[in-house]
Structure formats: C-alpha cells, structure tokens
C-alpha cells in the first residue's frame, strides 16, 4: 500500500489497484488530466549536515487528487514511466525547482535542490538542451541544482549517458547516485561518472543499528565514498541511533523523518527562514 506523506489525509491508493489493465489506464488518464490541471504539488524534504543545519532539499512530487488527497509518487511514477507522462511530470518538477532556486527565500543562500530524473526522461535526445533552456529561462544557478539518477540508467548505452552527464556537469550541475546499492550495476563504472554524491538507500539505513549485514554495507559505502571523495547522503534516517551510527563513521548528510518529512514548498521555505 502506498502511504501518503506530508498531508493529514490518510491512505488512498492501493498498489494492487494499478495491477489490472483497466485500472492502469484509468489511473493514466486521470494522471494526464492531473498534470494539466495543476494537481501536481512540489514537496521538499530537508537534507541536514551533522550539525543539523539545512544544506539542501530533495524535490518530491505529490499528486493532490480532488477526492483521494495527496498521493505518493510510489503509487503513480511507475505508471507515468510506462507512458510519456513521466517526461511531462519530470519537466514540471524541474521547472518548479528552478523557480524555487530563484525565489527570495533562497537568494544568497548556498542551498542545493535535488531533483529525481527518471531514466526515460534522461534518455530524451533533447534533455540536456531543455535543461539549458530552463536555466536560461528561470535564471537559476546551475551549481545549486543536483540531479538524482539511479544505477539502472547506466545499464544501457553507458557511454552516451556519461557523455550527457559530462555535458550537464560542465554547466555546473551536480549529480547524485540515488538508491545506491539497490540497482544492477558494478562498482567499476563509479570512477567514470561525473558525480559528487552517493545516496544510501533507506533499505540499508533502516536496520543499520540492529543488522550487522546492513552495518557492514553502509560502512563499505562510506569507505568507497571517502576514497572517491564523494559526498554521502543517508536516506530515511528516522532515529537518533541511526544518525549517531552514521555520524560516528563519516561525514554524512541526513535526510529523514528524524529531521523533517517532505512538506509543501511554502512550508519548507518557512522552516528554512527560521534556521
Ligand atoms: P527516492 O528518490 O529514493 O526518495 C526518497 C523517498 O524516501 C521519498 O519517498 C521520501 O519521502 C522517503 N523518505 C525520506 N525519509 C524517510 C524516512 O525517514 N522514513 C520513510 N519511511 N521514508 C522516508 P516518496 O516521496 O514517496 O518518493 C518515492 C520515490 O518516488 C522517490 O524515491 C523517487 O524514486 C520517486 N520520485 C519522487 N518524486 C519524483 C520526481 O519528481 N520524478 C521522478 N522521476 N521520481 C520521483
Ligand atoms: Mg531521490
Ligand atoms: Mg533515494
Ligand atoms: Mg529510495
């Protein structure tokens, strides 16, 4: 079951709902309307350093359904990915993030916003050009924009993918490897990628203090990152114990419910202003 976050509405959308072909197309049609009628909302989740200072945030899309409330992307991104909707949704999120970067609350601050890029979106022939256009249009500082890609992007046509990443990195845009360790890929490619950051997946962080295997995995990721001079973001930090475990072993940025849940951009800006 997909759980909604950041809103007081409770559950809505069952993953099994989208399993039947009929429902799949129903949801796709509703989603298409949603994109065009302003039902997508931008949520942001703070990323804090070991002193608790907000250094960035991840942009996380929500679907504000008129009857069902806020719907988590885990319930609809996979449907969007099977159609061209993911490209429109992705473009919308990127535009919102770039606009946010130029807003008053962020001016003069070195806050970096991270945006998830789906493989299909990244593989668009005009992806790099559209990013350049968007930066020019909004005036957003490319060095404050970080694109989160997953290992699965690298399975096919790795050379093309890397070339495109290098083209974007040359603009000052940063890259993060999301859900690190959960995809299908080898460590060998890491040294070829123009990335600045690894994100430890929540599934490793969850039991890091009670499961020795997870602890070893996390320690290994920290060692690789240190060796390659990559920043590490730990996803899904929920307890003080998890935070201490990580802080004792490296210089880690935390993202999780312990610090804050994803929240509407306006609320996140208020949080930032109070800091
Ligand atoms: P992700 O990129 O790995 O994002 C992290 C997910 O972990 C988010 O789920 C976030 O709300 C959740 N999370 C963070 N801290 C905690 C915690 O302490 N506890 C728990 N239980 N969960 C935590 P969310 O927002 O539901 O997004 C799920 C996935 O949907 C994202 O995983 C990402 O893969 C995808 N997604 C979200 N927004 C976009 C988007 O704009 N474009 C694309 N392509 N994918 C998106
Ligand atoms: Mg992400
Ligand atoms: Mg992630
Ligand atoms: Mg994840």
UniProtKB/TrEMBL annotation:
Domain EAL: 24-275
Annotated compartments: Cell membrane
Domain of life: Bacteria
Name listed for the protein in its UniProt record: EAL domain-containing protein
Organism annotation: Methylomonas rapida
Residues of the full protein shown: 355 to 629 of 629
